[in-house]
Amino acid sequence: MAKSKDPRVAKSVDGSRFELVRGDITKQETEAVVNAANKRLAPGGGVAGAIHRAAGDQLWEECKGLGGCETGEAKITEGYELSANYVIHTVGPVYSDSPEKPKLLESSYRNSLELARENGIESVSFPALSTGAFGYPEREAGRIAIKTIIDFLTNYSQPELVRLVLYGKSSFDLHRELLSDIQED
């Protein structure tokens, strides 16, 4: 595997590795990538559009047969033309001040990790779920993502590598700060 030049921060968690990486989710060389999907699992904008474009038309054809996906749930497909063998699709919540929303966002991460574990997937890359068109404040969503991933890796030995892929410098810097704050707690 080629060395990446993308900025990254790594943390060891009970024998597994958690990474923050600045980069493009569609270019990750992990066994699975997570799609920030809509309920129809259809191509769209943002991460979902980028993953569908990079994977090719076969991804949408497979997604059509899955019957959609509810918020907080996760489903798996082949990766087709992506470097990743699999795409795990999850629907994060659209942001509002409802007390249910943080639990649903946590469920999106946890259920995706559980699906990876059930399928023997050793490495998975996530985008920052719900922070784009779904409007979740990035700081709050980042804290939920990092805590949920670390908690999962504390309890399970698989996947061995979980990567949170941040698209821009400001997003990467914010998540690096959040990881540092969480480590100090």
Structural overview:
There is one protein chain. With 185 residues, this protein is an alpha/beta fold. The chain has 5 helices and 7 strands, in the order E-E-E-H-H-E-E-H-E-H-E-H. The chain has a single domain (8-184), classed as Leucine Aminopeptidase, subunit E, domain 1, CATH 3.40.220.10. The protein has helices at residues 46-55, 57-64, 100-118, 138-155, 169-184, and strands at 8-13, 16-22, 32-36, 74-78, 86-90, 123-126, 161-166. It has a 7-stranded mixed sheet with strand order 1-2-7-6-3-5-4, sandwiched between helices. Strand 6 (123-126), helix 4 (138-155) and strand 7 form a beta-alpha-beta unit. It is globular and about 45 Å long. The chain starts with 7 loop residues before the first strand and ends with a helix.
Q: What is the CATH top level name?
A: Alpha Beta
Structural class assignment: alpha/beta
Strand order of the largest sheet: 1-2-7-6-3-5-4
Q: If classified by CATH, what would the architecture be?
A: 3-Layer(aba) Sandwich
Order of helices and strands: EEEHHEEHEHEH
Q: List the uncertain runs.
A: none
In round numbers, the mean pLDDT is 94
Individual helix count: 5
**Spatial separation of the terminal alpha carbons:** 34 Å
Question: What's the CATH topology label?
Answer: Leucine Aminopeptidase, subunit E, domain 1
Could you name the CATH homologous superfamily? Leucine Aminopeptidase, subunit E, domain 1
